[in-house]
Amino acid sequence: MPGYCRYLRICAGTGSDHFQQYPGYRVVIRIFTAMVYDPEQAATVISQTRNWVREIVIGCNFCPFANREVKKNSIHYQVSGAATLYSAGEELLQECLLLDRDPAVSTTLLIFPGGFAAFHDYLDLVAAAEKMIRRKKYTGIYQLASFHPLYQFAGTAPEDAANYTNRSIYPMLHLLREAEIAKALSQYPHPENIPGRNIDFAREKGSAYMKMLRDSCL
Fold first, then answer.
1. Cα 107–chain centre separation
2. Which residues are CB-contacts of 38 (< 8 A; sequence separation ≥ 6)?
3. In this predicted structure, what is the pLDDT of residue 34?
4. In the chain, where do the E strands start and end?
5. What is the pLDDT of residues 23-67, one digit of tens each?
6. 160 touches 166 (CB < 8 A)
7. How many other C-beta atoms can be found within 10 angstroms of the C-beta atom of residue 215?
8. Angle at 115 between CA 113 and CA 121, to 5 degrees
9. In this structure, are residues 176 and 129 in contact, taking their beta carbons and an 8 Å threshold?
10. Phi/psi of residue 19, each to 5°?
11. Hey, which residues does 198 pair with through a beta bridge?
């Protein structure tokens, strides 16, 4: 099992955050808990996520562009021990910076094996991540896609097989380059039909089959 570390981060600040006063300084104190994965544990999570990409995303053709990126080895997998919105946002920012400096990386999957297990907590993470994208002026440059083991589209029942189009083995944030998305969509006939086709496929297979296929990736 992953270990747990408790961090105390002290930052110079001048905002309205809760702070403790020290002579000559205003400091913001943030305490957050993070899980620490050793290399073997992280490698296992990445291997399982690769299985999910191969068996579900590509195997079910949920993303017709994914196979090309797998063959190019252009997907970056990052295991995160973040357990708070703040620490997760910091790690997502690092993934943005990686894309900034490395054009060979087309997309990145930030994986949270031990965090945001409740779907409502994960939705808070997605909202915070999208806010960070806007705040750091990455709008129009990078785009987020969301995947979670308990993903549920608005207006659907939890047992609806359609939810398995976005149900992953772990909570994760998928960061993509907007320019590459636009280029791929421009070369694909009727891309607007992809979501509906995926839902039809999942419902035809049924929830039991889709769950079995997803869980086989672990």
1. 11
2. 2
3. 75
4. 3-12, 19-22, 25-36, 75-79, 107-111, 142-147, 172-177
5. 444 444 444 457 889 999 999 999 999 999 999 999 999 999 999
6. no
7. 11
8. 135
9. no
10. -145, 160
11. none
- 28 backbone dihedrals φ, ψ, rounded to 5°: -95, 130
Tokens for 67? 């196979």
Q: Residue 130 is encoded by which pair of tokens?
A: 């999208």
Euclidean distance between CA atoms 115 and 90, whole angstroms: 15
8 Å CB contact between 148 and 119: yes
Cα dihedral 136, 139, 142, 144, rounded to 10, equals 100
Q: Are 162 and 205 in contact (CB under 8 A)?
A: no
pLDDT single digits (tens) 144-177: 999 999 999 999 999 999 999 999 999 999 999 9
Neighbours of 131 (CB within 10 A): 12
Separation CA 80–CA 87 (nearest Å): 9
The CA distance from 174 to 172, in Å, is 6
Strands (E), 60-216: 75-79, 107-111, 142-147, 172-177
Site of tokens 């035809």? 204
Q: How far is CA 50 from the centre of its chain?
A: 14
CA 116, 143, 30: angle at the middle one, nearest 5? 45
